[in-house]
Each structure stands twice: as C-alpha cells, then as structure tokens.
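Exam revision sheet. Question 4 asks you to relate a sequence to its structure. Input first:
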Amino acid sequence: MKYHFKIHKEGNGFWAQCIELQGCITEADTIAALQENMQDALNLYIEEPSNSKDLAAMPDQSIKLSKTVVEVSIDPQIAFAFLVRYWRIKHGLTQQEASKRMGFDKIYSYQRLETKKCNPSLKTMSMVKKLYPEFSIDLAVSV
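Answer key, structure tokens:
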C-alpha cells in the first residue's frame, strides 16, 4: 500500500504531511531522514489498535506524483493486518463473527491476522479473500 506525502521546505529542514491521512505529519533535517520518518509515521498511523472502531482512509490512487508529492509504502505486514481489519469493519463483523466464518477454532487465530505479527499461509490468505472478496493481496504487498 502506498500513500502520498506532500513535502515542504522550511528553513534548513523539511516537513511532510500525508495527503490521505489527516494528522499524519513528520519532519527532518534532510530529505533522506524525511523519507525514513514518513514511512515510520505512516506505519504508526495505520497500525491502529485492533479494538479501535476508527478506520484510516484507503490510499487515493488518483493523486499525481510531482517534485513535492511522493509515494510512501507501508510495511507489508502492517498493510495486510490493516486491510483485514478494514474489510472486517466494512462488512460489519466482529472479530468473533469473522473468526467463526473463517472456521477458526479460537478467536486468537483470527485476531493475529489483524496484527503485524501475522505471517499468514496461502490457505489463510485464501480464507481471507473468500470472506472479504474486496481484499487485495496485491495492494497489501505493493512496495
């Protein structure tokens, strides 16, 4: 998943704000440090607590890149967990309901899918895709 940041020069440093995510802002003294900070800020912003009802916006594919507008990738594990949680909430399911529909014996197995500690098998990914047809593994792993 890639989001877009608008870069601003201020004095001897730089700051950037994510266009799609209000309040996702960072700063640095150099462009190289700003690149790192943008990815860190984005990962932290997207990595919502699993019990949160808030949903971050999806990336806006129509935003055009320029000298001051850049794409920043999310860590794929965080993106996968975010998308699982995003589609669960969009489908109006609780974790318990999603767990049952996917055939997990324990809710913990499902809850791991919504954390960055998840390392899903192909079988699990196909179960996710079956429950949430809109889920895109390509979107989750694009870097």
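Marking note for examiners. The domain at 2-73 is CATH 3.30.160.250 (Double Stranded RNA Binding Domain).
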